[in-house]
Design goal:
alpha/beta; 250 residues; binds pyridoxal-5'-phosphate; 10 helices
């Protein structure tokens, strides 16, 4: 990209980011909350240069959903001297857990005990390396908020059934190297996101009875951040309203 093109892109990112921050402020005000959810800017499909522009604009947390893309991007960003916290938000195969644990501060898509074990093993191995990992890997339990019938008709979408959460939480809590932080969900298509996020808030409440520190709620994307803030989300994962429409697949 030419220098002029880069400057234009940086200006655009700054404007988009400011617009999203104002939306979050308005949603917080509207909901009467005294805390402000944390913004995670989802940079999937966009280059490391955009991540660098965002960190220079003050973004501390970025999200990615594919290991093959995120690993090299995180390395490029670190090589340029910026160190945002990387949140892994996509479906994750256990055999990719070790690679994700290398760069991620948090994984929002923990949805089965086999993945918990793989992440735990990987984090412990990294901790044993020279200058290895010192922080635990933060884990969010991803919940599939669709109806039981929809889950049965179309399995494999990512996310545990609500009934599976207690056992999954125990698995994370009992795994050295991992820290249970809370729940995560994507609002199902074809349903009012407000209703879905209310169910997520109830599941969060139930989780906190046994795990009081697991109080975070990761919910809310570009199209539904207001509903998520109203329902108590503490982490917002916003992509296209900051970066623009995703090239290609998206
Ligand atoms: C892509 C993605 C987002 C961001 O979605 P936008 O609509 O672009 O804001 C949030 N959460 C997950 C799990 C995603 O895959």
């Amino acid at each position: 990209m030419s220098e002029a093109g880069r400057q234009e892109r940086d200006r655009e990112l700054g404007e988009n980011l400011a617009r999203v921050q104002r939306r979050i402020d308005a949603a917080v005000e509207q909901s009467g909350r005294s805390d402000r959810p944390q913004l995670i800017v989802v940079t999937k499909f966009f280059p490391a240069e955009d991540v660098l522009a965002l960190t220079r604009l003050g973004v501390s947390d970025v999200g990615e959903n594919r290991e093959q893309e995120a690993g090299p991007k995180a390395e490029a960003v670190a090589a340029a001297g910026e160190h945002p916290r990387w949140h892994f938000i996509g479906q994750l195969q256990s055999n990719k857990a070790a690679r994700v644990a290398r760069f991620a501060s948090a994984v929002h898509s923990v949805d089965r005990t086999s993945l918990v074990r793989a992440l735990g093993r990987a984090t412990q191995r990294l901790a044993e390396e020279e200058q290895g990992r010192t922080e635990p890997l933060e884990c969010y339990l991803q919940v599939d908020l669709r109806s039981e019938a929809d889950r049965a008709a179309d399995p494999g979408r990512g996310g545990a059934a609500p009934a599976e959460l207690p056992a999954l939480a125990e698995a994370v809590a009992g795994q050295e190297g991992l820290a249970l932080r809370g729940v995560m969900a994507v609002a199902p298509l074809g349903e009012d996101p407000a209703a879905a996020f209310e169910r997520l808030a109830e599941l969060s409440l139930a989780l906190r009875r046994d795990h009081p520190d697991a109080a975070e709620i990761s919910a809310g994307m570009s199209g539904d951040l207001e509903a998520a803030v109203a329902a108590g989300a503490t982490r917002l994962r916003i992509g296209s309203d900051v970066l623009g429409p995703r090239p290609g697949l998206g």
